[in-house]
TrEMBL record:
It comes from Alosa alosa. The keyword Cell division does not apply. Keywords: ATP-binding, Cytoplasm, Immunity, Inflammasome, Inflammatory response, Innate immunity, Nucleotide-binding, Repeat, Ubl conjugation. This is NACHT, LRR and PYD domains-containing protein 3-like. Residues 42-118 form the CARD domain.
Amino acid sequence: MASSTQTDKQEVQHNVEAGAGAESQTSAASPAKATDQVFNARIELINKIGDAALKDLLDGLQKPTTDMGPVITKRERNEILQNHSVTEDQVTCLVDMVWKKGERACERFLSLLKDKEPGVYDQQQMILKLKEWICSQYKTVQEYNSLPGQDVLLTDRYTDPLLVQQHRKQKEKEKEIRFRGASLFSAREAYQSTTVDQFFSPNDRGDITKAVILQGHSGHGKSFMAQKIMLDWASGNLYQDRFELILHLRCKELNQMSRERNDRCVVDLVSYNKTFTPLISEKLKDSPQKVLFLIDGFDELRFTNEINDSLVICQDPFTPAPVEAILSALLKGTILDDCFLLVTTRPTAADTLSKLLKHPLRSTETLGFSEKGVQEYFQRFCQDQQVAEKALRSVKATGTLFSSCSIPVICWIVCTVFREQLKENAEMAELETTTSIFVHFVSTLLEHHCQGLSQPVPTLLRSLGQLAERGMLEQQVLFEKGSVLSTVSDPASVPFLCKFLMKKKVRLEEMFSFMHLSFQEFFTALNYTSDQNDEKVNELLGSVKEYDGKSYVLPVIQFLFGLSNKEVVQNLKELPLPSTPSIRGQLEKWILELIEKSKDSKKSNELLFILHCLCELHEEEFVRRAMEVWGKITFASIPLTTTDCSVLLYCLQRCPTIRSLELNVCNITAEKLRMLQPALSRCEELGLVVEELSDADVNDLISALGEGQILSGLGVLKSSLSEESVQQVLSALSRQKSVGAVVLSVKTITITTAERLLQFYKTTQITEFVGVRLLEGADTAESLCSRVLMRREEEDFHLVIAHSGGSSPESETSGLGLDLLFPSQISDIILREILHRFHRLRRFTYNILLFDLCVDALLSWLASLPDLKGVILHVSCLTEIWATRILQLIHTCHSLKRVELHLPKGTDTAESLCSRLLMRREEEDFHLEILHFGDSSPESETSGLGLQLLFPSQISDIILREILHRFHQLRRFTDKSQEHNECVDALLSWLASLPDLKGVNLEVSCLTEIWATRILQLIHTCPSLKGVQFEAAVYDESFEKEEGLLLEEGICLLRRPDCTITLTGKRCCKATEKCTEFKDRNLSCNELWKGSSSRVYLQEPCSLVRRSLGTAALSPEPTGSFGLLAIHADLNKRPAASLIPHLPSDCCTFSSDASTVTLHPNPAFLPNVLTDFHLSQSVKLHSLPVWALSEYMRHTQPLRRSGRLFVCFDPGCLGQPL
């Protein structure tokens, strides 16, 4: 065995060396390498070589010849035969093995094949010749402006288009005409894309696709793609294992054949060299499942109806028949059903085609180039890398032109124009504005692509302008043929118009559009300038009463400014077109008025539109005058493109001084920062947010900041700055007059980083805050934390430390954060200690015991700090342990006034006892606030609950745990469930039993009758209660409070003789059919209640009356009701009902001049302490309160049912004693 193995190794080494040597000697002389022949004919060999031929080939390859040793060894022969049981697999293994051994091995294989299987060899050679012929015919392409003999290689031009595998409605396609700039490419990213090699892959049900529709508008490269498919297959780069033969049928040629009225068979439809006809016939007969028919331009067929209604039925592909019948049978699969089909067409004929084609069927569409495809096309076209980059930058700076380049034919035209211009002028100085590019583009097309026009150029341009203007006024981008013919005599010959077919019920109708909406807008503006009609221009400008970013006339106005530029006007004369000098004056007056109206506006899009108009006008003196009107230029939360930045720079550079500029979240990258740097450094006041900066870009940032500025804010986001870069930025900031908010995205946060931050805070005039944060998703292993922030709050120092933590549910440090409040700046020592102790928590993320020990150690150390005023802890789950920790903290840290527990947004799970927990000290009182954030959506059944409790001293941890657990029970049930109501009642009943409870504040989504009853019950059953407050409120997803709803059923119940309360929330103002559901709170009929939150205080009855009547005159509500007159009751002594003063009217004695009145006590009232004072003391009122009391008695006289002084106004007890 060892000897045999050694022999095999020697044989293989000899074979490889012999093959390599022969290859080096023969490859240069061989026109078609044997390796290429074997590779290209691989699938044919696998399908044709049988068992007998395989054994003969193995025998021959194992034997040595006079000039070379064996090609395969005995071991390799056994491997082929024994490892594979199917002949096709054995042949596959042999062919691949021989091909890998090199040129001489393949020559030996082909020589044996010729001897043993001459039929297979001859067919293989014929297929190779066919592929060579196809390569020669398809490798070059003629461009629109190619002269004879100026063909270019297909591979030098072809760029893969964006293919989608989904049906798109006509409205979606129409929208694409309207898309601008990069938004066109972004919108297309949502589509499900595919590739050519996936066309015939199994569908979702596992069925092999038999027919594929490839649809696309004219000029989108369908025929180009068909030619590339043929070239790739013939070159061995596509479908090698799937198809032995691809037959290309051009529908234009089929139209000609149909007109000749000669019967033909399938083979006659193929425009290949007749030498290959026998091969094609043999393949169609022997292996139709290995044949693909590529039918290009189905929409161009002139006999579509004949295909649908052909009277002649073709049943044999080799029997002559009408072209219509053969094509119909081929598409339907009544002949050659095993063959595969790939058919290109315009979208308007796709429905007709899909009804004809056999199944399983797949529909795809080419949308032209993606953004990456446009870039690739420029590089292929220009070849010179420097020229390509300059051209691409110019096109990208013009958003409308860039989006137009998604159409391959337009991309070719643009590349052609720019290539010639760049050769003549490398700087492209004349193409500064969008309008100048469009003018040059139009003039180039008129010069090179409009020969033989039926009308003069000025007439054609006016006709196009009239058509475009009509479409603009009607907001129409698709035009019927009749409408186009009324202005353009021969639309099919005009390169600016696109023609396509649209199904109109039972017929197809020719439709036209401009190549892109931007071209329609340009020709509309051109029409306004050539009409010489000032009134018409004024009417257009007057239609823009107030800036509306969606107005369809704004792009036209922008083009009007561009067409008023002096250089553009000069270029227009070369077309030639008459210009209107007076239009510039109209435009300048209009834009100045718009600037004056909008100079204080916060609409970034409006500002951007004005700047674009000024840039298009490109008149420096006027731009300088216009820019001086603005005091502050603010862009907020609007992504600025490269074009926008270029426009902004141009306008800012015209300003002698730039007073204030703010670029907040505008997608300012390093490239855009460098572009804007000359203007940014000149700003007196600057707010700037930049993104995706590297350390190499920091110098550009520092240059942009300059010195001596008022820096309102600086944000460096989505970046990974090093410690050195952070130091450079902080140093640059220290040279400014003042600094507002600063946030830097960094690579790692170390002690050095934090200390530099603190030093910067101490030495720099900061009005807001300064902080660093890790890049989202960055490795935090080496960082002390994820975020450090230092903020100034009046005289206090606020330190924020956070750690984003792990994403797993078990991670204790997920979202852990610490906010500390001090009365003054802390020392470096304290800062280092805080960071080190906080960092230790990360080491024990999944060790709960050690994690708890570290937390307790941290809080214990914080409690020892003498000046700590406030603490906020952000935790992933608010548990009982965390609650007792902060209670202990506020108990042991005497300087601490406030401590809170927060859950980060999106982490409020059922395991948490609540969403937020707050404890604070005010003098001797202790406040406890518990919140549960529900869902504020109208459909929500869990709207949240808030509870604030006031105690005279700090509570015990036992009471705290009981409160939290009872509160937590509410989260298990929906608001209206019986279980939820029982839990609420149990909670309030338990609260009423607390001996020291001084105050209760309830935050509930809706005041209902049930809640009103609960409030009254709480007031009557809790003897220690000093105050109650109710607020109808709910919290949204951002934890922002929204007003809830006050229902009439709850309000009426609280208007009782024994208690009246003022509420906060929304109340329905309708007279009837008032809102009764929480989900209706945002209806317009619900208005915010004007009263403040209600409180119930302790007062003695007589002093209460004295206060109520002695402070101001009584004035009824608009409804005439006194129901909200604040009545206070001594809850400490007895139930409120027994303390309301009951004074009969005969107990009031007015003086003769009505200047005073004496109020006598009601004998029925028995106070707790019976003294002569309480039984006989009278109250005398003077001046204004006397008038108020008399007015009250006069207004209440018609409804009185009692002799007592105060009566009720509630409908249920009207006139009864209060």
